[in-house]
Write a structure and sequence with these properties.
This protein is mainly α. The protein is built from 7 helices and 2 strands, in the order ααβαβαααα. The chain starts with 13 loop residues before the first helix and ends with a helix.
Length: 232
């Protein structure tokens, strides 16, 4: 991992942060640059919430102002929705200030919380974050747009440990078989939408105006290729 050498966020110009991400680096802040939830809320998320869940993570969707498929008592659901909604708004404000050139045309994604320790869990390879993998969009088609992810570690004593095999281009150059998988054995990887894909995306977009969560079923040749190489 390339650690961005910022000792103080206050001394980092937006252009520095943006340039680091454009180079494919992981931007690391030794001190969290956004306000965290209150200590009682953090304790609830660390200790109380995992007892209510059997899933890898829960995600707040800003487009529907809800956490789908989250079965819990009303007071628990309302509390975690408020925590994640507020945190997402704080991160959004931070990114608007620190990465202003990335803001025009962006689409705000989910705010997720992983409540169960990753290490030692018996997960399928495609679901495990202990293994090195190529990521793919999980909430609908990106249509080739890049994904900016902002992580915060709220564990009181344990560091979040990252491992990387380098940039996307570097991995692809070392493993040409990934290109073969992406293109299903064809010489070129198709990423442009054809008539059927455009029709389907238009239909999903229309329905999504009434039911925002339906947008997650959108697809594109690019996203299908990325999911074919979402391997560990």
């Amino acid at each position: 991992m390339s650690q961005y050498p910022l000792h103080s966020f206050n001394g980092a110009a937006p252009s520095e942060i943006e340039d680091a991400m454009e180079r494919g680096e992981v931007v690391f802040f030794a001190a969290n640059p956004v306000e965290l939830p209150s200590e009682p809320d953090l304790e609830f998320m660390r200790d109380g919430l995992p007892r209510e869940l059997q899933v890898k993570n829960i995600s707040y969707h800003p487009e529907s102002d809800s956490i789908p498929r989250f079965d819990a008592a009303p007071e628990i659901k309302n509390r975690i929705e408020q925590i994640l909604r507020t945190h997402g708004q704080r991160v959004e404000q931070f990114l608007r200030q620190s990465c202003p050139d990335f803001v025009p045309g962006w689409t705000l994604g989910t705010t997720s919380f992983r409540s169960i320790e990753e290490q030692g869990r018996k997960l399928k390879p495609r679901s495990s974050n202990e293994l090195v993998h190529i990521d793919a969009g999980a909430y609908g088609a990106t249509n080739g747009s890049r994904i900016l992810r902002f992580f915060v570690n709220i564990h009181p004593t344990r560091d979040r440990v990252w491992g990387t095999k380098g940039s996307f281009n570097a991995i692809m150059s070392r493993h040409p078989e990934i290109w073969t998988a992406a293109g299903r054995g064809k010489a070129r990887v198709r990423i442009d939408k054809g008539p059927l894909d455009r029709f389907y995306s238009g239909l999903v977009g229309t329905v999504g105006k009434l039911y925002p969560l339906m947008r997650v079923i959108d697809s594109s040749p690019y996203d299908r290729s990325m999911r074919r190489i979402h391997i560990s």
